[in-house]
Design brief:
The complex is a heterodimer.
Chain A: E1 2-7, H1 16-26, E2 32-37, E3 40-43, H2 47-52, E4 60-66, H3 70-84
Antiparallel strand pairs in A: 1-4, 2-3, 2-4
Chain B: H1 5-15, E1 22-27, E2 31-36, H2 44-48, E3 55-59, E4 62-66, H3 72-83, H4 85-98, H5 103-115, H6 119-138, H7 140-143, H8 146-160, H9 162-174, H10 178-188, E5 207-210, E6 213-216, H11 225-244, H12 247-290, H13 295-309, H14 316-324, H15 335-355, H16 359-373, H17 378-388, H18 390-408, E7 410-412, E8 417-418, E9 424-426, E10 431-433, H19 453-474, H20 479-493, E11 498-502, E12 505-508, E13 513-517, H21 524-527, E14 533-539, E15 543-545, E16 550-555, E17 561-566, E18 569-575, E19 587-589, E20 596-597, E21 602-606, H22 608-613, E22 620-624, E23 634-635
Antiparallel strand pairs in B: 1-2, 2-4, 3-4, 5-6, 7-10, 8-9, 11-12, 11-23, 13-14, 14-22, 15-21, 16-17, 16-20, 17-18, 18-22, 19-21
Helix pairs in contact in B: 1-3, 5-9, 6-8, 9-10, 9-11, 10-11, 10-12, 11-12, 13-15, 13-18, 15-16, 15-17, 15-18, 15-19, 16-17, 17-18, 18-19
The chains are: A alpha+beta, B alpha+beta.
Chain lengths: 85, 636
């Protein structure tokens, strides 16, 4: 299991487009990705649930990657966060 | 040297033009903060020289007197007592509020205003009395024990000296000084007077001869109306005097004259006249309950809930308190009527709670009925029964029936029964009417105060049961009809065109306008299917309605998008492109996360012109976000 924390820089937060892109990215990997903010945490593949979190700019989220390809997945997803969110 | 708080407060009062010149008084940790009506009346030099006042300045329209930590609150208390400041200001507020009511309503409301605040004392005493008596009945040796003597004394205190409580409460209501009010109350049950409860044809009180006036040396134990009126007179005199007496002598002239004048008026006029009048009222109420074969009670039981609706039911407290301290009755035989009326509303409300299918109504009706069973009927009456009227009528019927039973029910006294004053009211073997040892307690808690539990349980069963059955019979849930009445409007808007179909179900067009293919939505994310498959709609009208029966799973903070779920379909309705940047301006979201919605129900209202003006495309994206997991998805 791999985890990293990231503070959102995108001004609209994880809303429709960023969320969709994130889901698309995560779908590439076999690992299960969980995103949590405070008490709430969701399966990052669930677009609706992800958007329902209401993650805004400045929020720090914790990303957990677990599965066969977790090493590469975690690194790639973190890179994706940095580049897009 | 310790400060003389009273003297300090008096001197402050004297130098600011008296209590009449105080608009409001408050204090913080060190300062007394006064709002003064007329600053010309201030004697600032003298104020600074008052012993205890360490400094003075004016700020924000307040006169601030620095007195010091730990002493300012004491000076403040004295200041209020000296000037009557808080009583006067409260009184003004109350007066302003009350003057909007018609006179008859104000008159009927007064007893409630007086009796509701003293309810804790009455309930404590009444319930204790009920328990002590029940114990005495159950354990005969208890009745002759010291325990009984002591507990009985404790329990009946509030009733034996009821005029004092009534007087203090009345003084608050009428804006008089409560300590002077208290004096009037104590005076009316002064130990030097003969106890009214011990008066018999052969044991008459002595008389004081004051020339042409004669004053009977008897107290007013068990009376309430003369007490209320005496204090009303006292408060009126006191307030008048505060206005006319020069401030310099106001402090000692006003209380003296007030008490003396009130005392004369009370013992010569108010007391004798109104105690007779009150006896008539009581006798009338008693007659109504006991001697009309139950018809009177039946009518009162039916009328009772209407007085609750008008907020006037506390006026019965006068009658109930009178009954409790009456030498001939000794129990509150009004309480079974109140209980029947209240418990019937419980029955009717419970019937609604059980019968209704509407979740919202159920969630209101159930707790309301529970509260009604404990004697607090307002939620049930206003929240449910009166709203639909028929349950209320069912309650009226049940209450009338229960009251009828309550008034004709009798049981045989197994021991001698005394009233709160220790006067024998029912000898062993006499027929005793159903009654309570307190007022203000009805329904299930009334079991603690009632003089016969089996009869009381029957009364509860009759009133609650009849109301329940009648309500079940006459009340039909109108809710679906009401919704139907509203729905045609919504139905007109209800979507008929299916825009997305899959194995799980159909998604109807949620916005009026031209349907375009997903690929033609002018946004690469939507068009590229990143957010799932679906369609776009170029809106003709700024209203998004639910495309199916489902649940709202998410609402964007900027109100321009909503997520819905139904039968495994996760749907995103996103109004416009990049409209997240409008931060909610021009959008109104009509639902919340977790809401259940019906097809056609309005979800989001938006302003097409505003979106265009802000430079964004208004196309509404309707996307099945989990389309990859769904089978046989067909769009358009």
């Amino acid at each position: 299991m791999k985890t990293f924390e990231y503070t959102i820089k995108d001004p609209v937060g994880i809303h429709a487009r960023p969320a969709g892109m994130l889901v698309k990215e995560i779908k590439k990997y076999a690992s299960t990705v969980t995103i949590s903010k405070g008490e709430k945490s969701v399966n990052a593949l669930k677009l609706m649930a992800l958007m329902g979190m209401g993650i805004k700019q400045g929020d720090t989220v914790k990303v957990t990657v677990e599965g066969a390809d977790e090493d590469t997945a975690a690194a790639e997803i973190e890179a994706f966060f940095k580049a897009n969110l | 040297m310790a400060l003389d708080y009273r003297k300090c407060a008096e001197e402050i009062a004297a130098n600011i033009g008296g209590g009449a010149n105080v608009v409001s008084a408050a204090h913080c940790a060190t300062r007394l903060r006064l709002v003064i009506a007329d600053n010309k009346k201030l004697n600032k030099k003298a104020l600074e020289n008052v012993d205890g006042v360490k400094g003075m300045f004016e700020s924000n329209g307040q006169l601030q007197l620095i007195i010091g930590t730990g002493t300012v609150n004491k000076v403040y208390d004295e200041f209020l007592a000296v000037t009557g400041a808080s009583a006067a200001t409260k009184d003004d507020v109350k007066k302003a509020a009350a003057s909007k009511m018609p006179l008859w309503k104000r008159i009927l409301k007064t007893p409630g205003d007086v009796f509701v605040p003293i309810l804790p004392a009455i309930v404590a005493s009444g319930l204790m009395m009920g328990l002590v008596e029940a114990l005495a009945k159950a354990i005969p040796s208890f009745a002759s024990s010291g325990w009984f003597g002591f507990l009985d004394m404790v329990a009946n205190t509030a009733f034996a000296l009821l005029p004092v409580l009534v007087a203090v409460s009345s003084a608050r209501v009428f804006g008089g000084n409560i300590f002077l009010g208290c004096v009037i109350g104590i005076m009316m049950v002064h130990p030097a007077l003969m106890n009214a409860w011990t008066v018999t044809p052969t044991n008459q009180p002595a008389v004081w001869n004051l020339g042409i006036l004669k004053i009977s040396q008897v107290g007013y134990q068990g009376h309430v109306i003369p007490v209320i009126l005496a204090v009303l007179l006292m408060s009126t005199i006191e307030k008048k005097l505060h206005k006319v007496v020069p401030e310099m002598i106001d402090l000692f002239v006003t209380p003296l004259v007030t008490v003396l004048a009130t005392a004369f008026a009370t013992f010569v006029v108010i007391g004798p006249i109104f105690s007779v009048l009150e006896n008539w009222v009581l006798a009338g109420a008693t007659w109504l309950v006991t001697s009309t074969g139950g018809i009177g009670a039946l009518i009162m039981g039916a009328l009772y809930p209407f007085t609750v609706v008008m907020g006037l039911h506390h006026m019965y407290n006068v009658i109930e308190a009178g009954m409790l301290s009456s030498a001939t009755l000794g129990v509150n035989i009004w309480m079974p009527i109140a209980t029947a009326a209240n418990f019937a509303q419980f029955g009717a409300c419970l019937a609604v709670a059980i019968k209704c299918t509407d979740k919202k109504l159920k969630s209101v009706a159930l707790p309301s009925s529970l509260s009604a069973s404990l004697g607090i009927t307002e939620p049930a009456i206003f929240g449910v029964n009166f709203r639909f009227m028929k349950p209320f009528i069912a309650g009226v019927i049940g209450g009338a029936a229960g009251s009828l039973f309550g008034s004709i029910a009798r049981f045989t006294a197994s021991t001698d029964i005394y009233n709160t004053a220790g006067v024998l009211v029912y000898a062993k073997g006499a027929k005793v009417p159903l009654g309570a040892t307190t007022y203000g307690v009805t329904g299930i808690p009334g079991l603690l105060a009632i003089n016969n539990i089996p009869l009381y349980l029957i009364l509860l069963a009759i009133s609650g049961g009849i109301a329940f059955v009648v309500c079940n019979f006459i009340w039909k849930e109108e809710k679906p009809e009401e919704v139907k009445a509203e729905e045609p409007e919504a139905k007109v808007e209800a979507p008929k065109t299916v825009v997305i179909r899959c194995k799980n179900g159909a998604v109807y067009q949620p916005v009026k306008g031209k349907v375009v293919a997903r690929k033609d939505i002018p946004d690469e994310t939507f068009a590229g299917g990143v957010l799932g498959d679906g369609v776009g709609v170029v809106p003709e009208e700024g209203l998004v309605v639910a495309p199916f029966d489902g649940t709202v799973t998410s609402v964007a903070e900027s109100k321009h998008a909503v997520g819905l779920e139904s039968q495994g379909m996760e749907l995103l309705i996103h109004v416009g492109v990049d409209t997240v940047n409008m931060k909610g301006d021009g959008f109104t979201c009509l639902v919340n996360e977790g809401d259940a919605v019906k097809a056609g129900q309005a979800l989001i209202k938006f302003d097409i012109a505003k979106i265009k003006k802000a430079g964004y495309n208004e196309t509404v994206a309707v996307l099945l976000t989990n389309s990859d997991d769904l089978e046989e998805v067909v769009c358009g």
